[in-house]
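step=encode ok
step=design start
structure_in=
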């Protein structure tokens, strides 16, 4: 039986994906140095922000979950970058890990909505990932090369809200309203306002606000 290694941040979503794959011979290990000791047949990368070294993906079959309309949504913070560009729908892709980042062939994909807050979106990504990974592990699949002109986006590191339009402000709040993510904020006269649970109705936002002194 194939020995499968699962690499992911510890979140409720990654826990759910891992448990759904327990019928396979799967191990969770985030210490990259131990991979050469384990010698897995397949490495699954899910919700992982660090680059996988070439020394690993060149030796082991390595696949990753990436959300975006490839090859146009490569790079960091794919969910946030798509929402900021007004995208309402996307795809969860199972791709081969290679160089450059997110350029690998696509094994399979599933279309999803980008509505709701970040936890809502990650719940949909999780269910889609479970479906794609089980399909991949049960069937012999060859990756299909990406077609089209690639476009990559930088990882979003600033969660300060840009005050431009009501809908955009709502999007900036909901796209970071999830487990393990810093909340979107504004700063006014020495005070910091952090926002969550945003609701947009009649061109007005209702939100939970946490106010603290800088």
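sequence_out=
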């Amino acid at each position: 039986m194939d020995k499968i290694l699962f690499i992911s941040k510890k979140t409720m979503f990654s826990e759910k994906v891992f448990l759904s794959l327990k019928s396979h011979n799967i191990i969770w290990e985030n210490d990259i140095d131990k991979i050469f000791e384990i010698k897995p047949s397949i490495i699954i990368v899910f919700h992982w922000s660090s680059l996988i070294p070439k020394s690993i993906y060149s030796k082991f079959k390595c696949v990753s979950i990436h959300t975006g309309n490839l090859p146009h949504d490569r790079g960091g913070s794919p969910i946030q970058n798509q929402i900021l560009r007004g995208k309402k729908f996307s795809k969860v892709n199972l791709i081969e890990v290679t160089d450059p980042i997110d350029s690998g062939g696509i094994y399979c994909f599933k279309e999803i909505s980008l509505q709701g807050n970040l936890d809502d979106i990650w719940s949909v990504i999780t269910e889609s990932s479970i479906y794609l990974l089980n399909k991949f592990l049960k069937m012999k699949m060859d990756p299909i090369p990406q077609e089209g002109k690639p476009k990559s986006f930088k990882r979003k590191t600033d969660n300060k809200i840009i005050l431009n339009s009501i809908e955009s402000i709502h999007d900036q709040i909901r796209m970071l309203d999830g487990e393990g993510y810093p909340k979107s904020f504004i700063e006014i006269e020495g005070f910091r306002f952090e926002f969550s649970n945003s609701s947009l109705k009649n061109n007005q936002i209702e939100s939970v606000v946490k106010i603290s002194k800088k």
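step=design ok
step=annotate ok -> The chain has a mean pLDDT of 96.
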